[in-house]
Amino acid sequence: MAVSNPNSVFRALADPTRRAIFQQLSRHGEQTVHGLTRRAGVSQPAVSKHLTILKRAKLVRHRRDGRETHYRAEPEALAPMIDWLNLYGAFWRERFDRLETLLQRMDR
Amino acid sequence: MSSLAESPGTLVVERVFPHPPQKLWRALTESPLLAQWLLRNDFEPVAGRRFQFRRDPMPNWNGVIDCEVSVVEPLKELSYSWVAMGLETVVRWTLTPAEGGTHLRMEQSGFGPDREANYKGAKYGWQSFFNGLEHTLANLE
Hints:
heterodimer; A: 108 residues; alpha+beta; Arc Repressor Mutant, subunit A; three-stranded antiparallel sheet; 5 helices; elongated; B: 141 residues; Alpha-D-Glucose-1,6-Bisphosphate, Chain A, domain 4; eight-stranded antiparallel sheet; 3 helices; 40% strand
């Protein structure tokens, strides 16, 4: 996955209620808006709105079953976030190497 | 030695350098030295000081990192905020005397704990989010 800009995922998850919804789905599997609303502590329209934003970021998928819509988490969509962290890890390790070189030079 | 800490929201890189803390402190706090190993900067070791690090621009990013110094404890600890690509993190350096040198630890954490205050009733911080997702993430790798 060639992703270097994690902004969309971060933005979708910037809201604590959306994080809670996403995590709820990650932990407990597929749920309906009703189920999510019971736990979210906000209105059903609010939950629906949050779900739309999560869907746009591909963090959540849905399927229809009769009159009910079931939502589930797509943790794979977090990949940009993981990439971002790994990128930073590589950055700092490389900088530590450079620091080591500099410290040796400072001796002279 | 480096590691992604137990929580994927925190990045830790640490190493023992065969040099005294005084020397590491200089490399961390003297702007021209800092530029030689980290990034171009207008850093000053003064709490409250706002400064920038600059990387080469990338396709999605102008390369500017906005920072503000929060902790300056000579030879022991240095912390500053690190805002890049709209994401706010905190970089914290700690120096500990070790056998034959100095143990340097860099911890980058946060994703903006201060920003959480902007959301009404925000009790669901990034940290708990990442802690909860630990297993999910582990399974992906």
